[in-house]
Write a structure and sequence with these properties.
By secondary structure, the chain is mainly β. It has a domain of 138 residues: Porin. 0% of the residues lie in helices and 72% in strands. The two termini are 47 Å apart.
Protein backbone atom coordinates (compact mmCIF):
# COMPACT_ATOMS: atom_id res chain seq x y z
CA UNK A 1 0.00 0.00 0.00
CA UNK A 2 1.36 3.49 -0.88
CA UNK A 3 1.75 5.97 1.98
CA UNK A 4 -1.22 8.20 2.81
CA UNK A 5 0.59 11.38 1.74
CA UNK A 6 1.15 9.99 -1.77
CA UNK A 7 -2.03 11.11 -3.53
CA UNK A 8 -2.90 10.88 -7.21
CA UNK A 9 -3.29 14.67 -7.29
CA UNK A 10 0.42 15.06 -6.59
CA UNK A 11 1.37 13.55 -9.94
CA UNK A 12 1.89 16.21 -12.59
CA UNK A 13 1.37 15.13 -16.15
CA UNK A 14 2.87 17.44 -18.74
CA UNK A 15 1.18 17.40 -22.10
CA UNK A 16 3.32 18.08 -25.07
CA UNK A 17 2.06 20.93 -27.19
CA UNK A 18 0.93 19.68 -30.55
CA UNK A 19 2.85 21.31 -33.35
CA UNK A 20 0.67 22.87 -36.06
CA UNK A 21 0.55 21.06 -39.37
CA UNK A 22 3.10 22.32 -41.94
CA UNK A 23 0.22 22.57 -44.45
CA UNK A 24 -2.59 25.09 -44.44
CA UNK A 25 -5.29 26.23 -46.84
CA UNK A 26 -5.84 29.98 -46.99
CA UNK A 27 -8.53 32.28 -48.37
CA UNK A 28 -7.61 35.86 -49.34
CA UNK A 29 -9.50 39.06 -50.07
CA UNK A 30 -7.60 41.27 -52.57
CA UNK A 31 -7.59 45.01 -53.16
CA UNK A 32 -6.49 45.53 -56.79
CA UNK A 33 -4.44 48.55 -57.86
CA UNK A 34 -3.83 48.88 -61.64
CA UNK A 35 -0.35 50.03 -62.66
CA UNK A 36 1.66 50.68 -65.81
CA UNK A 37 0.03 49.78 -69.11
CA UNK A 38 -3.02 48.33 -67.32
CA UNK A 39 -4.07 51.91 -66.50
CA UNK A 40 -4.48 52.53 -70.25
CA UNK A 41 -7.60 50.38 -70.01
CA UNK A 42 -8.79 50.77 -66.42
CA UNK A 43 -7.51 53.16 -63.75
CA UNK A 44 -9.84 52.56 -60.81
CA UNK A 45 -8.65 50.80 -57.66
CA UNK A 46 -11.07 47.94 -57.01
CA UNK A 47 -11.67 45.83 -53.87
CA UNK A 48 -13.03 42.93 -55.93
CA UNK A 49 -10.47 40.17 -55.65
CA UNK A 50 -10.44 36.71 -54.11
CA UNK A 51 -7.78 34.03 -53.83
CA UNK A 52 -7.28 30.50 -52.48
CA UNK A 53 -3.84 29.18 -51.64
CA UNK A 54 -2.48 25.89 -50.39
CA UNK A 55 0.86 26.34 -48.61
CA UNK A 56 3.34 23.80 -47.23
CA UNK A 57 6.02 24.95 -44.77
CA UNK A 58 9.25 23.35 -43.73
CA UNK A 59 10.32 21.81 -47.02
CA UNK A 60 13.94 22.82 -46.28
CA UNK A 61 15.31 24.47 -43.15
CA UNK A 62 17.60 27.35 -44.18
CA UNK A 63 19.19 29.94 -41.90
CA UNK A 64 16.69 31.85 -39.73
CA UNK A 65 13.68 30.38 -41.52
CA UNK A 66 12.44 27.67 -43.81
CA UNK A 67 11.62 27.19 -47.45
CA UNK A 68 8.14 26.16 -48.52
CA UNK A 69 5.95 25.82 -51.58
CA UNK A 70 2.41 26.77 -52.48
CA UNK A 71 -0.25 26.94 -55.18
CA UNK A 72 -2.34 30.10 -55.61
CA UNK A 73 -5.52 30.51 -57.64
CA UNK A 74 -7.01 34.00 -57.64
CA UNK A 75 -9.64 36.07 -59.38
CA UNK A 76 -9.00 39.82 -59.62
CA UNK A 77 -11.55 42.17 -61.12
CA UNK A 78 -11.24 45.88 -61.97
CA UNK A 79 -13.92 48.06 -63.54
CA UNK A 80 -14.75 51.70 -64.20
CA UNK A 81 -17.49 53.79 -65.77
CA UNK A 82 -16.78 57.07 -67.57
CA UNK A 83 -18.00 59.53 -70.20
CA UNK A 84 -15.49 59.64 -73.07
CA UNK A 85 -14.83 59.00 -76.74
CA UNK A 86 -13.42 55.97 -78.49
CA UNK A 87 -11.74 56.22 -81.90
CA UNK A 88 -11.81 53.13 -84.14
CA UNK A 89 -10.33 53.83 -87.57
CA UNK A 90 -12.41 56.63 -89.12
CA UNK A 91 -15.23 56.25 -86.57
CA UNK A 92 -15.46 58.14 -83.26
CA UNK A 93 -17.89 56.83 -80.65
CA UNK A 94 -18.86 59.12 -77.78
CA UNK A 95 -20.89 58.08 -74.73
CA UNK A 96 -20.82 56.23 -71.45
CA UNK A 97 -18.03 53.66 -71.34
CA UNK A 98 -18.00 50.66 -69.05
CA UNK A 99 -14.66 48.88 -68.88
CA UNK A 100 -14.05 45.61 -67.08
CA UNK A 101 -10.81 43.69 -66.62
CA UNK A 102 -10.74 40.22 -65.07
CA UNK A 103 -7.47 38.37 -64.36
CA UNK A 104 -7.29 34.76 -63.18
CA UNK A 105 -3.74 33.61 -62.35
CA UNK A 106 -2.79 30.04 -61.49
CA UNK A 107 0.64 30.09 -59.86
CA UNK A 108 3.10 27.76 -58.25
CA UNK A 109 4.98 29.56 -55.47
CA UNK A 110 8.24 29.35 -53.56
CA UNK A 111 8.04 30.91 -50.08
CA UNK A 112 10.77 31.67 -47.55
CA UNK A 113 9.40 32.24 -44.03
CA UNK A 114 11.35 33.79 -41.17
CA UNK A 115 9.95 31.78 -38.26
CA UNK A 116 12.18 32.77 -35.32
CA UNK A 117 9.57 35.03 -33.73
CA UNK A 118 6.64 33.25 -32.06
CA UNK A 119 3.97 35.89 -32.65
CA UNK A 120 4.54 36.71 -36.30
CA UNK A 121 6.45 35.30 -39.27
CA UNK A 122 7.51 37.62 -42.12
CA UNK A 123 7.92 35.93 -45.49
CA UNK A 124 8.96 36.56 -49.08
CA UNK A 125 7.52 34.65 -52.01
CA UNK A 126 7.66 34.37 -55.75
CA UNK A 127 4.97 32.92 -58.02
CA UNK A 128 5.04 31.75 -61.65
CA UNK A 129 2.33 30.39 -63.91
CA UNK A 130 -0.33 31.05 -66.57
CA UNK A 131 -2.99 33.75 -66.23
CA UNK A 132 -6.21 34.31 -68.15
CA UNK A 133 -7.12 37.93 -68.97
CA UNK A 134 -10.64 38.91 -69.99
CA UNK A 135 -11.46 42.48 -71.06
CA UNK A 136 -14.80 44.03 -71.89
CA UNK A 137 -15.63 47.49 -73.21
CA UNK A 138 -19.23 48.69 -73.58
CA UNK A 139 -19.96 52.01 -75.26
CA UNK A 140 -23.48 52.81 -76.43
CA UNK A 141 -24.85 49.77 -78.26
CA UNK A 142 -21.37 48.40 -79.00
CA UNK A 143 -19.49 45.80 -77.02
CA UNK A 144 -15.86 44.72 -77.45
CA UNK A 145 -14.61 41.52 -75.85
CA UNK A 146 -11.08 40.19 -75.65
CA UNK A 147 -9.65 37.08 -73.99
CA UNK A 148 -5.99 36.09 -73.80
CA UNK A 149 -3.55 33.91 -71.88
CA UNK A 150 -0.27 35.24 -70.50
CA UNK A 151 2.78 34.03 -68.63
CA UNK A 152 2.62 35.64 -65.18
CA UNK A 153 5.04 36.24 -62.33
CA UNK A 154 4.39 37.72 -58.90
CA UNK A 155 6.93 38.69 -56.21
CA UNK A 156 5.31 38.94 -52.78
CA UNK A 157 6.00 40.26 -49.27
CA UNK A 158 3.84 39.14 -46.41
CA UNK A 159 3.30 38.40 -42.76
CA UNK A 160 1.90 35.27 -41.12
CA UNK A 161 0.31 35.74 -37.69
CA UNK A 162 -0.18 32.36 -35.93
CA UNK A 163 -3.39 32.29 -33.88
CA UNK A 164 -4.94 29.39 -31.95
CA UNK A 165 -6.24 27.25 -34.80
CA UNK A 166 -5.74 29.57 -37.77
CA UNK A 167 -3.10 31.79 -39.34
CA UNK A 168 -3.77 35.47 -40.07
CA UNK A 169 -2.21 36.63 -43.34
CA UNK A 170 -1.30 40.07 -44.71
CA UNK A 171 0.48 40.41 -48.06
CA UNK A 172 1.42 42.72 -50.92
CA UNK A 173 1.91 41.14 -54.36
CA UNK A 174 2.96 42.65 -57.70
CA UNK A 175 1.41 40.81 -60.67
CA UNK A 176 3.25 41.12 -63.98
CA UNK A 177 1.74 39.44 -67.05
CA UNK A 178 4.01 39.27 -70.08
CA UNK A 179 2.84 40.82 -73.35
CA UNK A 180 1.62 38.42 -76.03
CA UNK A 181 1.64 38.83 -79.80
CA UNK A 182 -1.81 40.45 -79.85
CA UNK A 183 -2.40 41.65 -76.29
CA UNK A 184 -0.56 44.13 -74.03
CA UNK A 185 1.20 43.30 -70.82
CA UNK A 186 -0.69 43.70 -67.56
CA UNK A 187 0.66 45.07 -64.30
CA UNK A 188 -1.25 45.49 -61.05
CA UNK A 189 -0.74 45.33 -57.31
CA UNK A 190 -2.65 43.25 -54.75
CA UNK A 191 -3.02 44.17 -51.10
CA UNK A 192 -4.34 40.99 -49.48
CA UNK A 193 -5.68 39.91 -46.10
CA UNK A 194 -6.72 36.38 -45.32
CA UNK A 195 -6.99 33.41 -43.00
CA UNK A 196 -5.22 30.07 -43.22
CA UNK A 197 -6.66 26.86 -41.78
CA UNK A 198 -4.44 23.94 -40.68
Amino acid sequence: MPPDDYAQSDIKVEKKKKKPSPFFLAAFWDLNVPMGSTTDFVKKVDPAGFGIEGRYHGLVKAGPGNLGVGILVSWDWMAQKSESSLVEGNVTLTGTQVRELSVTPLMGKVIYTFDQHKRFHPYVGFGLGPARVWRRLDIGIYRYLDESWHFAMAPELGLEIPLRNVVGLVAARVNYLVQTKDDPQQLYLNFSVGLGFH
